[in-house]
């Protein structure tokens, strides 16, 4: 074997291509789904972290063309994975509160797609954040998002939302960061860390996913930060870094840790906490974001890890051979702290958290997430339902009066965790069966524990129109675990 073949094999190993990740499909799937091909060695790529190109608004307008097409580099290799404007993640879009964001989405894929501005509080109608649109292959569409002047400054993201293929399209690489600028200056250096997972075969094709993995929520063998495998972040001792971390994985829960350094959280889901909070680990469900403040101390090499996270099991759903579903341990990146001391930056004492919804609760409702086999035991088909039904775009599931504040109890009547996500309107967590949520903080994805519940307060104080809520394990969403809201003026 020539040395060039050897290095090619090594490169393939990095891509998480192995018998283990394939075999895990049937026999061994109680093990961590993401374990194969992601060795726990800091900085395996050895490459400095790069960030997606950034496109910034000017004079109140950001006009951008996003072309969705195959053919991007992932983990340093050419692949047929998908991206926007030739990269995965696509460009970072940076707007100011009050701006207009105009996106011409051009579909160069072989299937319909569309665009969603996850977490951003904008109108869901017409050519706004409208999930009922399908942009056909070979066509384009002009979106317009009007960011309100009082919009919170924070970290959001964009991704496709065409029902039935959302997981496939995100797994294939279609993601990008969306930043609403503003707020206090935090840190001496800011970075976007958009985390995705995928599985790429030896020919550079994104792997197809079998029915069982869709039921559990697929996890790719390759976990990437800005499309890179285990990149290196170099920071000076005493500096203060702001990391905008986005969990863009289709199903993987990221239980972030940075052993040896302090992990301080400043924001969740694009909304500031009242003050920075230092945590042993920060758990991000798919779709969640955290703004982390990292103030490196001792020089050395540290690993940014995602610890194993148990997402429940398929026991009791009637599925054959049910087992536990765990997001495996992975090293995301290495932090290299150099001794070059800069003038030490200070953590802010308080942060501009949005005020809690003021209105009194005018209506309470319960929505129930469940899963069960269609027609008894077997591998035939798992039904993923909300209130006993699968998604039907033309049906109004929850009709809401504009200008009211509601309290929703999301019940999880299944043995797996499901991250609840509502478009357009942020929610405030009041209580959950699992505890541990920072109460009062506004967010847009709430991990509802298996057989548990979460109580949310939702101000529908502006924007009429129809939108959706769903499980952000996107295989579940594509299988029907999504429902509509219709806010009527
Ligand atoms: Cu991030 Cu409806 O999605
Ligand atoms: Cu969303
Ligand atoms: Cu789910």
Summarize it.
It is built from 5 helices and 33 strands.
Describe the structure.
- The chain is mainly beta.
- The protein has three domains: 4-26 and 49-180, Immunoglobulin-like, CATH 2.60.40.420; 189-340, Sandwich (Immunoglobulin-like); 361-488, Cupredoxins -  blue copper proteins (Immunoglobulin-like, Sandwich).
- The chain is 7% helix and 43% strand.
- The protein contains five helices and 33 strands.
- It has helices spanning 3-14, 19-23, 166-171, 211-216, 474-478, and strands at residues 54-56, 61-74, 77-84, 92-95, 100-107, 116-118, 140-146, 154-159, 176-180, 189-198, 222-225, 232-236, 241-247, 254-257, 263-268, 271-279, 282-284, 289-294, 300-307, 309-313, 324-327, 330-338, 361-373, 382-386, 398-401, 404-413, 418-422, 427-432, 442-443, 445-448, 453-460, 465-471, 482-488.
- The strands form seven sheets. A six-stranded mixed β-sheet has the order 11-10-13-18-15-16, with no helix packed on it. It has a six-stranded mixed β-sheet with strand order 24-23-26-31-28-29, with no helix packed on it.
- A hairpin with an 8-residue loop joins β23 and β24.
- The longest helix is centred in the first third of the chain and has 12 residues, at 3-14.
- The radius of gyration is 21 Å and the shape is globular.
- It starts with a helix and ends with a strand.
- The model is unreliable at 1-43 (pLDDT under 50).
- The site of CU-O-CU linkage has 9 residues, from β6.
- Residues 116, 118, 421, 423 line the site of one copper (II) ion (CU).
Name of the CATH superfamily of the largest domain? Cupredoxins -  blue copper proteins
Judging from the principal axes of the Cα atoms, what is the shape? globular
CATH topology description of the largest domain: Immunoglobulin-like
Beta-strand percentage? 35-45%
